[in-house]
Amino acid sequence: MNQSTTNAIPFQKLCSLLSLGELQGNPQPLSGGFMHRMYGIETGKDKFAVKVLNPLIMQRPTAKDNFIRSERIACKAANSVPAAAAIQHNGESVHEIEEYQMQAFEWVEGILLHPKDISIEHCTVIGSILADIHHTDFSSLNIAYPAAHNEQQQMNWSDYLTQGETNQCVWVEPLRSMIDKLYEWDDQAHRAAVKLAAHMVISHNDLDPKNVLWDGLNPTLIDWECAGYVNPMQDLIETSLYWATDANSLAVQERFLAFIHAYKAKAATLETDWRTVLMSGFAGKLGWLAYSLRRSLGIESVDAAEQKLGTEQALATLQALDLYAQQIEEIEMWLRENN
Fold first, then answer.
1. What CA–CA distances, in Å, run from 62 to 57, 58, 210, 279?
2. Terminus of the chain with fewer CB atoms < 10 Å: N or C?
3. Nearest by Cα to 101 from 146, 143, 71
4. Could you tell me where the DSSP H helices lie in the chain?
5. Mind listing the pLDDT tens digit for each residue in 103-131?
6. What CATH number should be reported for the domain holding residue 232?
7. Which tens digits make up the pLDDT trace of 278-292?
8. Distance between CA atoms of residues 182 and 162, nearest Å
9. What's the pTM?
10. 202 and 56 in one domain?
11. How many domains does one find in the chain?
């Protein structure tokens, strides 16, 4: 986003609404977010982070309600885990100013970890925190239970391929070579979702390294946008793999098991069908691939930079799916041997 566009964002009006103080200097773009724009701002009172919500995402019928719900979850979770929730005004966490929808957060000092920098200690800390989230009583929020997965809405990968060919997208050949597998994984993920829907908890749902700021070994959990119901074992495995994956996108057994053991120390026995749980792991990746393809094609992107990001993420996600499929049997063996 160029400087003229940044200047158009009503940061001072947001500061006035939330009594954050007078804006000082220029807002600074922050890296890390794939879907929305993040900025650091300084005022006469303090420093804050501002999230400018993606207008195309906010056009979705359920988008604003999802943000409101997720912030209610973050506020409740903050009583038991180090969660960063949005600053509210009259009970609202999403603030509509001119044509923008925005959120503001207290500034958190910390760093994001790259895969090569994640240690066994980091995995142990997050594994324990995930167990705390799963044990948090969110019943007072009256969050509606999700609808049953009774009808499969399969992704139309062939349509994406056709559009990619028309637009000469760089991901056409990788997509074509994997298209039969994509349909197969889509079906397996849906079948797994049906089986796992009987037991759900409320969780962060996207607790990967880009959503945790570290000050030494002290973490702060950010970006609760995806918070909601999930099967606890599905959440456990997906999150442990986020933290166990190295710079080559391969799961490291020691880090994976450190995460599992830390969770298990608070959750007692882990009883589930691990193969079903691992099949469910395709769902999030396939959903992100479909979204990235739409961004790359210009269907869900507001500018060329977002379109480029969609292309990069489409290629990366195709590779991640292939690597995940190759590792499933080995990961299942780790789980069976250590449960």
1. 10, 8, 24, 27
2. C
3. 71
4. 3-8, 11-18, 55-58, 63-77, 120-135, 157-166, 172-196, 232-244, 253-267, 274-296, 304-337
5. 999 999 999 999 999 999 999 999 999 99
6. 3.90.1200.10
7. 999 999 999 999 999
8. 15
9. 0.92
10. no
11. 2
